[in-house]
Write a structure and sequence with these properties.
By secondary structure, the chain is an alpha/beta fold. It is about 35% helix and about 15% strand. Strands 1-7-6-5-4-2-3 form a seven-stranded mixed β-sheet, sandwiched between helices. α1 runs antiparallel to α7. The relative contact order is 0.16.
Length: about 375
């Protein structure tokens, strides 16, 4: 139930990866011998598979270690290269911490950062985006799907606005790719990142899409090295992981998630009988696998402790060890006490209906037991607190 944090590698993915650990362990840049050429061809096949999934050119796909590296590469790289035009970056208050942390660092170096607010559903007002863009704006950075609530952004509309305003649009699509369709031929996104481990591939490998334009997008490389990825990202190719990435993305599509959404809806239906809960983003378009639920007057940590057999989280995995309330929920106007009571459930294509029913029952039992022992719940029932 924590698949937005990471997913299990599919058997078929693992089987495709293993030969490149043992039989053909060659460096993909060693083109003067057969093993090296075979490894290089495997990297190119994976690049083609990713490009095919996103409907773009394989020459627009660059491999790296994952979305966090892509985010740092793009935001810092664009800031470094476009300072003659301006120093203004627009993002959203509910973005992933990797984006927010990167922007905070650049602000210390003179960048002007605008953090767009969201409404109670977690959605920006596109008119506010239009008004925020100035002649000094060099980058708009907005995720396709929120990693905590699963709420989807109107990326096509945002991309069109940025195109009209001649501003680069960078989309963190880490949670969205494989779950919803993203067609880069028809959506004018300039830069987009994704990670393999969110779609049943291996950890430690990702890709950055950079649109080929008549006026090439300029980004300073984050990692200099031996000229890999056309000089854009140095370092020895992680061939097994890249092969697994290609296989995983070729096996996932929005069609795979129809059953996942049915299971997610079943989970919410069963938990709907629990009194005083909030399903965040329920009345808007969300990822088919994600449900973020506050159980009022209980700490999320209490529920997770009471259900040790369940893999759950109280928000993003990168900050889930923190005792702070979710910055996403707080930005949506959720009171802090309700934000601290939020548990994220995220299903995968491997999650079964039986597991969903078992999970829901364990949660119901835990919530009932915790509340029965809670003085705060008794005060609420007595009408002394809201």
């Amino acid at each position: 139930m924590d698949n937005n944090a990471t997913t299990r590698i599919l058997d078929e993915v693992w089987n495709d990866m293993t030969p490149y650990f043992i039989q053909n362990y060659a460096n993909a840049s060693s083109l003067y011998h057969q093993m090296g050429r075979e490894a290089n061809a495997a990297v190119q096949r994976a690049r083609d598979q990713i490009a095919n999934s996103l409907n773009c050119s394989s020459k627009e796909i660059f491999f790296n270690s994952g979305a966090t590296e892509s985010i740092n590469t793009v935001i810092c790289g664009v800031f470094n290269k476009y300072q003659q035009k301006g120093n203004h970056i627009i993002t959203v208050s509910t973005e992933h911490k990797a984006v927010l942390s990167c922007c905070e660092q650049l602000a210390k170096k003179g960048a002007q950062i605008t953090y767009l607010p969201v409404d109670a559903k977690g959605i920006i007002d596109t008119d506010e985006l239009k008004n925020a863009i100035t002649p000094l704006t060099i980058l708009v950075c907005i995720m396709a799907a929120n990693n905590e609530t699963g709420v989807l952004s109107s990326v096509e509309q945002i991309a069109t606005i940025c195109l009209e305003k001649d501003v680069l649009f960078f989309c963190d699509a880490t949670q969205a790719v494989g779950k919803i369709d993203i067609d880069l031929k028809n959506i004018p996104i300039d830069l987009l990142c994704l990670s393999a481990h969110k779609l049943h591939g291996p950890k430690g490998v990702g890709a950055l899409y950079i649109r080929r334009k008549s006026k090439p997008i300029q980004i300073t490389p984050l990692i200099a090295g031996g000229g890999q990825e056309s000089g854009f990202r140095g370092g020895t190719y992680n061939v097994p992981a890249i092969v697994g990435f290609g296989k995983a993305i070729s096996m996932t599509s929005s069609a795979n998630y129809r059953t996942v959404q049915q299971n997610r809806d079943l989970l919410e239906e069963i938990l709907g009988s629990v009194p005083e809960i909030i399903i965040h983003g329920k009345d808007t378009t969300r990822l088919p696998n994600t449900s973020y639920i506050s159980f009022k007057h209980i700490l999320a940590s209490e529920i997770m402790t009471a259900c040790p057999t369940l893999a759950l989280s109280s928000g993003a995995a990168c900050v889930t060890g923190s005792r702070e309330a979710s910055h996403v929920l707080l930005a949506m106007g959720v009171p802090k006490e309700h934000a601290l009571a939020a548990v994220r459930f995220s299903l995968s294509i491997l999650t079964t209906r039986e597991e969903v029913i078992q999970c829901a029952q364990l949660i119901k039992d835990a919530v009932k037991k915790i509340r029965n022992q809670s003085p705060i719940w008794q005060l609420f029932k007595a009408g002394l607190i809201e």
